[in-house]
Specification:
Number of helices: 17
Strand order of the largest sheet: 15-12-14-13-17-18-16
Largest sheet: 7 strands, antiparallel
Structural class: alpha+beta
Helix content: 25-40%
């Protein structure tokens, strides 16, 4: 009976039995020594500044530091660390580059942060099979630099130079998703250390096939799980050929409605656009200032096309016809690599351009996604709501996927303003749900969207997720407090 009671309460009282005399923020000396025995003393830290660095991301969620940070060097060490924490009921928080926007690395119950960035090898490159295997310390820019002479590239691009395994964990996407898909479409296999230290290869060890009907989709289960089911220690990714030719373009519009209508018309015309991004006039003004652009301060589309020279000519002609029918002006093509780089660097720096509008404040990014047919309706209404709210913010988004963000600037010490920002975000999330969309297109649930997730998938959906979580993580130790 005592054993059953101990098992039933272990997840509720994670320190019981090992550090029961210690307050949160402290670990037993013997436990810290056990961590050092696994990874070496120089790869364990309990320093306050290090713990605080690992208890926050780019979001407005307040810092919740772990009790210790460890840097494993290989998957064997990760497995031993997980088994050690599992035996003692200590929470585990995976950490990559810390660029998330939903508080996913906050250690709300303390515990051990496992920083995976020292595992940074490209393990296997299969050029003929268009696949690569990377460890969690490899970022998307590092991978594409490695691939630069191969004729292949990895196109999923969330803007930040995020860890590829972290991108898998959050189900990331970005500017190229309209043509190349999200991480869910480009992850072929995952190596995962389960909470008790066992090692799982979700599609079978060493396998990198394009499709399968072999049982449950375990890879899909872990993509987007946000560190709540296990630690991703390697991912096998699908690569794509580098296009023969690339052309980018910008065009300004008289209204938000005209810009978004153009997006829908381009997609309906089956133009194979690679990127199609929307920036409202507030965001364009911020980007002009921050990135030294000279674009019109108006609702604007950034576009990019990939393909052969002949195919691009047809795509450009058709796109120009469509946008002109919707009142576009200042239509500008960028064919040189340097011009395209400047344009997309400015788009990727939109987050920092927005922050520069109100120095000292934090950014809060919404992340709704709706069916393409409902995009004009929600974007126009959101712009009106934003103008009426009195909040400082802008709109930017991957509109080719129906996904957009309001970047709202808030003083995190102003409880009233923070409350208004959160209320605006919740209202927008519920509007997206009412239009058969989702509360998060790419950032994940993390800490802030748990109620919206319940409303999105319903009671049965949440209960099914809880059951899956309980099977894989019965003690509730993996990144507790997130998603569910």
């Amino acid at each position: 009976m005592a054993r059953l009671l101990r098992a039933a309460t272990w997840g509720l009282f994670p320190w019981r039995g090992y550090c029961s005399q210690k307050a949160k923020g402290e670990l037993c000396r013997d436990f810290v020594e056990a961590l050092k025995a696994v990874v070496g003393g120089s790869h364990v830290s309990t320093a306050t500044v290090v713990r605080e660095q690992h208890g926050r991301d780019e979001s407005v969620h307040r810092c919740e530091p772990p009790d210790a940070v460890v840097w494993p060097q290989n998957v064997e060490q990760v497995s031993r660390l997980a088994a050690l924490c599992y035996r003692q009921g200590v929470p585990i928080i995976p950490f990559g580059t810390g660029t998330g926007l939903e508080g996913g690395v906050c250690a709300v119950q303390g515990g051990v942060c496992i920083n995976l960035t020292h595992m940074d090898r490209i393990l296997e490159l299969n050029l003929e099979d268009f696949s690569v295997v990377v460890e969690p310390g490899v970022t998307r820019k590092a991978l594409n630099l490695h691939l630069r002479d191969s004729g292949l590239w990895f196109p999923v691009d969330p803007g930040a130079d995020a860890s590829l395994c972290g991108m898998a964990a959050t189900g990331a996407s970005g500017t190229n998703a309209v043509r190349y898909g999200t991480m869910r479409d480009n992850v072929l296999n995952l190596e995962v250390v389960l909470p008790d230290g066992r090692l799982l290869h979700t599609a079978g060890q060493g396998r990198h096939f394009r499709k399968s009907a072999a049982g449950y989709n375990l890879t899909g289960l872990f993509v987007g799980s946000e560190g709540t089911l296990g630690l991703i220690t390697a991912t096998t990714l699908r690569l794509h050929p580098v296009p023969e030719a690339i052309v980018a373009a910008t065009c300004a519009f008289p209204s938000v409605q005209a810009a978004v209508d153009s997006t829908v018309h381009i997609l309906q015309a089956a133009v194979p656009v690679a990127r199609i991004e929307f920036l409202d006039e507030v965001m364009m003004d911020a980007c002009n200032r921050y990135s030294k652009l000279n674009c019109s301060v108006a609702p604007t589309l950034f576009l990019e096309f990939h393909g052969s020279q002949q195919a691009l000519e047809e795509q450009l002609q058709r796109t120009e016809e469509i946008v002109q029918q919707n009142g576009a002006s200042d239509f500008s093509w960028a064919k040189a690599a340097e011009e395209r780089s400047q344009l997309w660097t400015a788009r990727h720096n939109a987050w920092y351009a927005a922050l520069a509008m109100r120095p000292g404040c934090k950014g809060y990014s919404t992340d709704v996604c709706v069916p393409i047919s409902r995009l004009p309706e929600i974007l126009v209404q959101t712009k009106e709501d934003l103008n009426a709210s009195g909040l400082t913010g802008s709109i930017v988004g991957h509109v080719g996927d129906g996904n957009f963000h309001c970047i709202l600037l808030v003083n995190p010490d102003d409880a009233e303003e923070l409350g208004r920002v959160k209320a605006f975000a919740e209202q927008l999330g519920r509007r997206a749900l009412a239009l058969h969309g989702t509360c998060t297109g790419e950032h994940g649930i993390g800490l802030g969207k748990r109620q919206l997730l319940r409303e999105e998938v319903g009671a049965v959906g949440v209960e099914t997720m809880r059951q899956l979580k309980a099977v894989l993580d019965p003690q509730g130790l993996m990144n507790p407090g997130k998603v569910l």
